[in-house]
C-alpha cells in the first residue's frame, strides 16, 4: 500500500521526581509532526520502567528530558540499563545541560544532547541521525 | 540484539521463552504486514484459542486507559497475565502519532514497570502485563489486519485476557471491539454521552456498560439514559439477538472504585458466552471477519496492479475521452482479474 519507510517509534520520558512535563510535551508534538510515533511515558519514570516500555513498544530510540542536575548520573544509568537489557538503542537527552557536561555524557554513551534552544528541525534530525547511526 | 539478525522463527521461540523484546519485535512485524506478518500468523496458529478477548471502547477521554490500568493491576495481583493493545489514531497530516494511553496505565502500576524490576535482571525476566501501543497509521484496512493478528500473537504467547483499547469513533474501530468476546463500552456523565454512544453504533456492540467518572455529577443520569435505551431495545427485540442484557457498572477509574465490579461483569459475560455456546459464534464471526480482511487486502493489491497495467491505463484514457463508461471499464478489468462472473 505505501512504500514509505515505517515511522520511527520513540519513547519519551522524564527520569526521577522533578518538575513538570511541558517541555517533553512540546518535543512529543515536534516528533509527531515529523512523522514519528511517540510513546509518551511522561513523568516519574525509572530506568527499569523505561527499558520495559522500550522492549514492549520496540522503540527505535529513547528521549529523556532533564531539568535538574541529575543528568550526569541518570543519563549514564539509562545507557547502562539498556546495555544490560541487550537493547542497543540510542538515548537522547534534552533539557538544561551545561556545556561542559555534554562531552562526558557523549563519552558515557548518550547519543546526543539537545539544549532548550533547539529548533523543531534540529530535534527531529537529531533523533533520525541517532537512530540511523545506531542501526 | 541487533535489528536484522533474527529470523521470525527465532524471535517467536525467544518470545515464547519470555523475552519481551522478541515479542515487541514480532508485534512491529505484525503492524507492518507483509510476509513476516504472514509467517507469524502461521507460527501462532497452533497455539491460539485460549485467551479471553476483551474490547474497551468509548469517546476520547472517557477514561478507557485509566480503567484498563486498574483492571490490569487487579488482574496481575490475581495472578493473571494480561496483555493490552492500545490503539490510537495517527495524524492524517504527518502519519506521526502521540501514543498516550500507556502513561495512564503505567501510572496505576499495572503496566510494565515496578512489578518486573523486582524479579531481577536477565533476558527472560518473568513478567506480568504486556502493553503495546499501536497507531492506526491511516492505512486502509491496516488496523483490520494488524489488530486480530496482534491479538492472536498475544494469545499464542499465553497472555489472558487480551484487552484492546480503541476510541469508539471509526467503523473499523467499532468492528474491532465488536469482534471481541466481550465488548465494554465506557460512557461518562455530561454532554449526552449515552446518546452519542448510541449514534456511534456502540450500544449494539456493548456487552458491558461502564459509567466512568462516577465521582462527577450526572453519573446517575447517564445510567438512567442507558437503562432507558436498553428497555427500548428490549421492546424492539434487539436484546434477543445478543441474548443478554448488558449490565451497567459504575466506576471511578481515577481511584479504582468499581474496577472489581467491572471485571466481575466481564467475567460473568464470558460465563454466559461459554454456557450458551455463543462464544463459538463470536469466534466464528471473528474468523470470518479476519479472512475477509485478508482477502480484501490481497484483492486490493491486485486491483492496484490491474489499474497500473497497460489495459488499466488504456481503459482510464478511454473513459477520459468519453468512449467508454467507468462501469464498463471496471467490468472489463474485473473480468480480466477474476474471470467472467
Ligand atoms: N474525575 C475523574 N476523572 C477520570 C476518571 N477516569 C479517568 N479520568 C481522567 O480522565 C482523563 C482521560 O483519561 P484516559 O484514561 O486517558 O481516557 P481515555 O478514554 O483512555 O482517553 P483517550 O485514549 O485519549 O481516548 C484523565 O485526565 C484521567 O485522569 C474518573 O473516574 N474520574
Ligand atoms: Mg486512552
Total number of beta strands of chain A: 5
> What is bound: which ligands?
guanosine-5'-triphosphate, magnesium ion
Q: Could you say how many structural domains of chain A there are in total?
A: 1
Could you state the order of secondary-structure elements of chain A as H and E? EHEHEHEHEH
Q: Oligomer, anyone? A: heterodimer
**Unreliable spans of chain A:** none
- Most extensive protein-chain contact, per-chain counts: A-B, 36 and 45 residues
Gross morphology of chain B is globular
Largest sheet: spatial strand order of chain A: 2-1-3-4-5
Within CATH, the superfamily of the largest domain in chain B carries the name P-loop containing nucleotide triphosphate hydrolases
Give the tags.
heterodimer, A: 135 residues, alpha/beta, Rossmann fold, five-stranded parallel beta sheet, B: 341 residues, 2 domains, seven-stranded parallel beta sheet, 8 strands, globular, binds guanosine-5'-triphosphate, binds magnesium ion
Protein described:
- The complex is a heterodimer of chains A (135) and B (341).
- Chain A has 135 residues and is an alpha/beta fold.
- Chain A has 5 helices and 5 strands.
- Chain A has a 5-stranded parallel beta sheet, with helices on both faces.
- In chain A, helix 2 packs across helix 3.
- The two termini of chain A are 25 Å apart.
- By secondary structure, chain B is of the alpha/beta class.
- Chain B has 2 domains: 48-276, P-loop containing nucleotide triphosphate hydrolases (Rossmann fold), CATH 3.40.50.300; 292-338, no CATH class.
- The longest helix of chain B has 31 residues, at 278-308.
- In chain B, strands 4-2-5-1-6-7-8 form a 7-stranded parallel beta sheet, with helices on both faces.
- Chain B is globular, with a radius of gyration of 22 Å.
- In chain B, helix 1 (8-16) crosses helix 2 (20-32) and helix 2 packs across helix 3.
- Classes of the chains: A alpha/beta (135), B alpha/beta (341).
- Bound molecules: guanosine-5'-triphosphate and magnesium ion.
Amino acid at each position: 500500500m505505501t512504500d514509505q519507510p515505517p515511522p520511527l517509534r520513540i519513547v519519551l520520558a522524564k527520569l526521577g521526581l522533578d518538575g513538570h512535563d511541558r517541555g517533553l510535551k512540546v518535543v512529543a508534538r515536534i516528533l509527531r509532526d515529523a512523522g514519528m510515533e511517540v510513546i509518551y511515558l511522561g513523568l516519574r519514570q525509572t530506568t527499569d520502567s523505561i527499558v520495559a516500555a522500550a522492549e514492549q513498544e520496540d522503540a527505535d530510540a529513547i528521549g529523556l528530558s532533564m531539568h535538574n542536575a541529575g543528568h550526569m548520573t541518570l543519563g549514564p544509568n539509562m545507557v547502562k540499563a539498556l546495555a544490560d537489557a541487550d537493547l542497543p538503542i540510542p538515548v537522547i537527552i534534552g533539557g538544561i545541560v551545561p556545556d561542559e557536561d555534554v562531552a562526558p555524557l557523549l563519552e558515557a554513551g548518550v547519543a546526543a544532547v539537545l539544549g532548550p534552544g533547539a529548533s523543531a528541525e534540529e530535534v527531529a534530525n537529531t533523533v533520525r541521525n541517532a537512530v540511523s547511526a545506531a542501526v | 540484539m541487533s535489528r536484522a539478525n533474527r529470523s521470525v522463527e527465532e524471535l517467536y521461540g525467544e518470545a515464547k521463552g519470555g523475552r519481551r523484546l522478541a515479542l515487541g519485535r514480532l508485534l512491529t512485524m505484525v503492524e507492518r504486514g507483509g510476509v513476516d506478518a504472514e509467517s507469524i500468523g502461521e507460527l501462532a496458529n497452533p497455539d491460539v484459542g485460549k485467551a479471553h478477548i476483551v474490547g474497551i471502547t468509548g469517546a476520547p477521554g472517557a477514561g478507557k486507559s485509566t480503567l484498563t490500568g486498574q483492571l490490569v493491576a487487579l488482574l496481575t495481583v490475581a495472578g493473571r497475565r494480561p496483555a493490552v493493545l492500545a490503539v490510537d489514531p495517527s495524524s492524517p497530516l504527518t502519519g506521526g502519532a502521540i501514543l498516550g494511553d500507556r502513561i495512564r496505565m503505567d501510572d496505576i502500576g499495572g503496566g510494565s514497570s515496578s512489578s518486573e524490576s523486582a524479579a531481577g535482571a536477565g533476558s527472560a525476566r518473568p513478567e506480568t502485563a504486556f502493553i503495546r501501543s499501536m497507531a492506526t497509521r491511516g492505512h486502509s484496512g491496516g488496523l483490520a489486519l494488524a489488530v486480530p493478528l496482534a491479538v492472536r500473537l498475544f494469545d499464542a504467547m499465553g497472555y489472558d485476557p487480551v484487552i484492546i483499547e480503541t476510541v469508539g469513533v471509526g467503523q473499523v474501530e467499532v468492528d474491532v471491539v465488536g469482534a471481541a468476546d466481550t465488548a465494554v463500552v465506557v460512557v461518562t456523565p455530561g454532554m449526552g454521552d449515552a446518546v452519542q454512544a448510541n449514534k456511534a453504533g456502540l450500544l449494539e456492540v456493548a456487552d458491558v456498560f461502564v459509567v466512568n467518572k462516577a465521582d462527577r455529577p450526572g453519573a446517575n443520569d447517564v445510567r438512567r439514559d442507558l437503562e432507558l435505551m436498553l428497555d427500548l431495545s428490549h421492546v424492539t427485540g434487539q436484546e434477543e439477538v445478543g441474548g443478554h442484557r448488558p449490565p451497567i457498572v459504575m466506576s471511578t477509574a481515577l481511584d479504582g472504585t468499581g474496577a472489581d465490579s467491572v471485571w466481575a461483569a466481564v467475567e460473568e459475560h464470558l460465563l454466559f458466552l461459554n454456557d450458551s455456546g455463543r462464544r463459538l459464534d463470536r469466534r466464528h464471526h471473528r474468523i470470518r471477519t479476519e479472512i475477509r480482511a485478508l482477502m480484501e487486502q490481497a484483492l486490493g493489491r491486485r486491483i492496484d496492479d490491474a489499474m497500473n497495467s497497460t489495459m488499466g491505463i488504456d481503459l482510464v484514457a478511454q473513459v477520459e475521452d468519453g468512449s467508454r463508461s467507468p462501469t464498463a471499464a471496471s467490468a472489463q478489468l474485473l473480468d480480466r482479474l477474476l474471470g467472467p462472473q
